[in-house]
Amino acid sequence: MVRSKPRRKAGGTRNLSLLLIGAGLVIFALVITLMLINNLDLPAGDKAGDALLPASLSFPAPELSLEDLEGNPVTLNDYHGQIVLVNNWATWCPPCRAEMPVLNAYYQEHASAGFVIVAVDAGEGVAEVQAFAESMELSFPVWLDPQMDTIRAFRNNALPSSYVIDREGNVVLAWSGAINRATLDEYITPLLEN
Question: Which of 6, 50, 110, 164 has its CA 20 to 30 A from that of 176?
Answer without folding.
Answer: 110
